[in-house]
């Protein structure tokens, strides 16, 4: 082995890349376990779930029984313990196996539906909704986005008014993941006319009169994620379904923004890792003009650029996650990590389709699915343009408001 005199490594590189830097030994083992589970239990059914437009409910229980559903949630609320990096390692394993963005979202929607309840909710709400969901028995969703208010959380208009010992809710929500299968939705409602200071979170169970999934949405990608438009017409729920304090909902939501954006960044570079590995294998096997595609310098250069962008995105994302876990304020950095990683994911997926040629455009080729799935990431969780402007203001690059 060793090196050439010019310093070049003589070892034959592995076509498949599975990065482990940034994780400790336990997290690496968790990642490998999650990847093996996904390859065995999820990947054989991915095409069926894409066509059905949803992941079967029983998968939640299967993932829970494997010890992979409740990672990152404290044991007091029914979780398996662990920290942010445990959760990142687990999901990185799923994505390396090839799990679609839609399936990943469908399985782990509780990652955005439950934290507000687990951290701020009453014991009754935790026992009723959090614990059963983490056990795989229930499915929850988070209702924030509205037809007229996307990234502008402070501009929501769905209203909840107190009437005795009940809330009466009227309004609509849009693009709500897992709401078609969901057993409950944590709804952001306006409870006072004070902008961001007048929003509350209220749990609404499925089957409550007046609460309906008005339609299941058809999307370009994330086909395995059931996504709905929700309608609330004089929906009545108990006062006790309020999460935490009244008019504190915006702060509860904002508290989760950093981890949500780190998670979306992971999806971005996760798609990139999978696309790179699939493409490296394809160009090594596919021949044209009497030689494998990777015999062409232009193809090899493209693979290196795919690897470079993916490594940079992953390294930066995990560094921002490390700083967040250490207690630093990294709101601007999380915005930039998301942008870096999702742009890398989009670029690498596009390059993967190009290097696969005509097959890359076929539904039977996995990179085509990643190409569609990754395109949502610059939009979801805060559009790139909105988050870039937020970062500019936080970094002092915007003029002071007069």
Can you give me a brief rundown of this structure?
Residues 1-23 are annotated as: Disordered. The protein is built from 14 helices and ten strands. It is α+β, with helices and mostly antiparallel strands and 402 residues long.
Describe this structure in words.
The chain is of the alpha+beta class and 402 residues long. The chain folds into three domains: 25-134, Acyl-CoA dehydrogenase/oxidase, N-terminal domain (Butyryl-Coa Dehydrogenase, subunit A, domain 1, Orthogonal Bundle), CATH 1.10.540; 140-247, Butyryl-CoA Dehydrogenase, subunit A, domain 2; 256-394, Butyryl-CoA Dehydrogenase, subunit A, domain 3 (Up-down Bundle). The protein is 47% helix and 15% strand. It contains 14 helices and ten strands. The chain has helices spanning 25-42, 46-52, 58-65, 84-97, 101-107, 110-113, 115-120, 123-134, 249-255, 257-285, 297-325, 331-356, 366-374, 384-394, and strands at residues 140-143, 159-163, 166-177, 184-190, 199-205, 211-216, 227-238, 242-243, 287-288, 291-292. Helix 12 runs antiparallel to helix 14. The protein starts with 24 loop residues before the first helix and ends in an 8-residue tail after the last helix. Residues 1-5 and 8-12 have low confidence and may be disordered.
